[in-house]
Amino acid sequence: MRIKAPEKAAGFNTVDIYDQPIRLDDYLGTKVILSFFRDAACPFCNFRIYEMTHQYKAWQQENLEVITFFSSPAHEVKAHVARYPRPFRMVSDPHLDVYNQYGVEHSAMALLKALLFRMPRIYRGIRTGGRPRPNPHVKLVPADFLIDEEGRIVDTWYGRNTSDHIPLERIESFIHET
Fold first, then answer.
1. Read out DSSP for 57-89?
2. Residue pair 68/84 in contact by the 8 Å Cβ criterion
3. CATH of the domain at 130
4. What is the pLDDT, as a whole number, of residue 161?
5. From CA 61, how far away is CA 178, in angstroms rounded?
6. Taking the model in full, what pTM does it have?
């Protein structure tokens, strides 16, 4: 079931891909974007990760932290990011525990729409390191959640296709809200 803002963000207590503990409650006092991706090798996902990597330093200076989730096992995410290190926290959730808490959806139609209408984004993703691989969660649709300093979801984005994430402009607006 989709989450609607404003709502208290569902807490989680897990580990990142390097086995370091990560809890959402540790980020109280900081704005957070939670971004849910399909898998570490997904070209669509890789292009978005590339975009976020280039924005991260400026976002962090503005008190925004990024936490990303992948449906791939940790060893696959680590193997992929070894070639393209990322500055933010990455969580492997192959059983989709946190995905389910946030209502991340599965849709064959969303996958088809992306393949038919988003080919340039696929090519950009491949250029930034994504190479499609077999994935049991190939129909996962991206989702993003903007969480304020008090742990409330203030904006949600459920992708319309498997390449669709919250626009960067909405993240910038969220950062500069008081």
1. HHHHHTTEEEEEEESS-HHHHHHHHHHS--SSE
2. no
3. 3.40.30.10
4. 77
5. 15
6. 0.84
